[in-house]
Amino acid sequence: MLRFLLNVLWFVLGGFVMGLGWWLAGLVAAVTIVGIPWARACFVIGNFSFWPFGYEAVSRRELTGRMDFGTGPLGLVGNVIWFLLAGWWLAIGHLSAAVACFVTIVGIPFGLQHIKLALIALAPIGLQVVPVRR
């Protein structure tokens, strides 16, 4: 119940805007055709950005125990290209939102989520969103 309440508050107080930012980046990437791998990552992380409480982003290599395109050398190159073209913009958006959340005591959990998402924004290729393990 607490996760649901936190997700609703998150969505209303800024998560919706950041999720749309991720989706916009995904649409721009998809239009270029060569950006489709980045577009897929944007839509996955965008959905995570809408409802982050109760989920985490983990490396697919750690999750599956094997490498794939996103977790190998091509994924590294993809993340470098992503960082240069769009990653730092999304990270700045999340960091700005985190600072605004940290101004209030109530906003601290939201600020922490924004910091997690800012780190993900820097290199999203090779990550998979999964429910939090207990």
From TrEMBL:
<dbReference type="Pfam" id="PF03733">
    <property type="entry name" value="YccF"/>
</dbReference>
<dbReference type="InterPro" id="IPR005185">
    <property type="entry name" value="YccF"/>
</dbReference>
<protein>
    <submittedName>
        <fullName>YccF domain-containing protein</fullName>
    </submittedName>
</protein>
<dbReference type="InterPro" id="IPR031308">
    <property type="entry name" value="UCP028777"/>
</dbReference>
<feature type="transmembrane region" description="Helical">
    <location>
        <begin position="7"/>
        <end position="32"/>
    </location>
</feature>
<keyword id="KW-0472">Membrane</keyword>
<feature type="domain" description="Inner membrane component">
    <location>
        <begin position="5"/>
        <end position="54"/>
    </location>
</feature>
<keyword id="KW-0812">Transmembrane</keyword>
<dbReference type="InterPro" id="IPR052937">
    <property type="entry name" value="Inner_membrane_protein"/>
</dbReference>
<feature type="domain" description="Inner membrane component">
    <location>
        <begin position="77"/>
        <end position="126"/>
    </location>
</feature>
<keyword id="KW-1133">Transmembrane helix</keyword>
<feature type="transmembrane region" description="Helical">
    <location>
        <begin position="79"/>
        <end position="108"/>
    </location>
</feature>
<feature type="transmembrane region" description="Helical">
    <location>
        <begin position="38"/>
        <end position="58"/>
    </location>
</feature>
